[in-house]
Specification:
Elements lengths: L11 H4 L2 E5 L5 E4 L5 E13 L5 E15 L5 E13 L2 E2 L13 E2 L4 E13 L16 H9 L4 E2 L5 E11 L7 E11 L4 E9 L2
Antiparallel strand pairs: 1-3, 2-3, 3-4, 4-5, 5-8, 6-7, 8-9, 8-10, 10-11, 11-12
């Protein structure tokens, strides 16, 4: 992943940053039954890294954010990602898993779909729901700085227990032995606990 913060571990799917990002400047899109205010979607293209730390695919996705105000004055921010991926030849995303069944390699140009979320807490800064997005607002760090200001802290970017994520990848048929991969975890930095399951891999 392209890191713009200090995060030990992989957080491969969850924190991958865009190689390119296109966003239509805009504001929140209303509230939904207590779940907070939604922003986006933003078009994003990212490099995706697997359990070995290798780039195994390029993701093309729609990304949105939802903000909920907490009683202690902090904000819960949930990022939702949904899109498609196209693989590079090399190590498969699950090649370095330590548990369960997985493969070792994946051929180029395998295509599939993925979805998932990243959820953390923002403290500091001032929330401005009417902030106007720059062109690269699909970047998580840019989005946080835009809507909360440069002094805001996002718990998924620092040593914290207050972060969780879950991503699922699926590539049907195409001669694969494994066609489902899952990347889930809690915490960030030194508190990161990440789990991989399955793979996108050839026989």
């Amino acid at each position: 992943m392209h890191k713009r913060w200090i995060i030990p571990g992989l957080l491969a799917a969850a924190l991958a940053l865009a190689a390119t990002s296109a966003a239509t400047p805009g504001h929140g899109q209303g509230k939904g039954k207590g779940h907070g205010k939604k922003f986006g979607p933003y078009a994003v293209v990212t490099d995706d890294h697997g359990s070995c730390g290798n780039k195994w695919a390029t993701d093309t996705e729609k990304r949105s954010f939802r903000v909920r105000h907490n009683q202690d004055g902090s904000y819960t921010v949930t990022r939702y990602d949904r899109g498609t991926f196209l693989t590079d030849a090399g190590q498969s995303p699950g090649a370095c898993e330590t548990k369960g069944k997985h493969g070792a390699t994946v051929p180029a140009d395998v295509h599939g779909k993925f979805h998932g979320y990243l959820r953390g807490r923002v403290t500091g800064g001032t929330f401005d729901p009417k902030a106007t997005c720059p062109a690269d607002c699909g970047f998580t760090d840019v989005w946080i700085a835009t809507f909360f200001g440069p002094s805001a802290t996002f718990s998924c970017f620092v040593d914290s227990h207050a972060c969780q994520f879950s991503f699922a990848y699926h590539a049907r048929h195409q001669g694969l032995k494994f066609h489902n991969w899952y990347d889930k975890g809690k915490g960030a930095g030194t508190f990161l606990k990440e789990r991989f399951h399955g793979d996108i891999a050839s026989p």
